[in-house]
């Protein structure tokens, strides 16, 4: 289909706020399968975990006959995440044109799932080359039948009680993800309250492991898509001072038990797949998750740079 006909068929509009996140989530929910890259909870977490980053983001939605069929989320200077209904493959080229209009860096990077072969073909035809070096993420999955018990070994397990826990929840998150050699986490009490207000967050799926003095030292947040009976873990972590004690695994199992009680049948999580950071992957595998897919990044240099 020609570029003009594509533009006539689809309506593109910019992201304008939380109501449009729900539109993006509606597409992710409609397209969900065990091999899907995007879950409604991952979108909520990604959008709200940090405050003040919106100027770095350009996001657009495409609709056909009033129904969302694609969204694209560009972050500075030149990285793109997207979701496209496979029934509308002709829109892929239009999304890449939009990306070129809003990106500013010397290279363009687009990340897709290895199963999205039609998108991969479009990327290759437009000069993108698979990145074979550097970090990458894999998807791991398990069904929730026969869940093992959560055993925190001398620590206490509880789910978050409400926004009063936002400050403590943010502190343990920063401790877990502010590591030597990496940028410090920007999750704050304010941003965590924004996460807690986002659909489909539920306090009963947000679990903490506490030390004897009541200090949170590990956590797991699960997001549930009730329609698809699918849960996703995002995020999971442990304070470095309390690692190698099985606490993240205990938080994961406690949250998965809660998700199963609410109707979940399967769960998925993303983790680094390269050998530079194997610990998270090993934690998930220890509680029954197995690899099912991989994210793949494609890169294109911009002419003139």
TrEMBL record:
Any Pfam family matching the protein: Acetyltransf_1
Alphabetized SUPFAM superfamilies for the sequence: Acyl-CoA N-acyltransferases (Nat)
InterPro entries, alphabetized: Acyl_CoA_acyltransferase, GNAT_dom
Domain annotation N-acetyltransferase: ranges: 155-305
Protein name: GNAT family N-acetyltransferase
UniProt organism field: Actinomadura alba
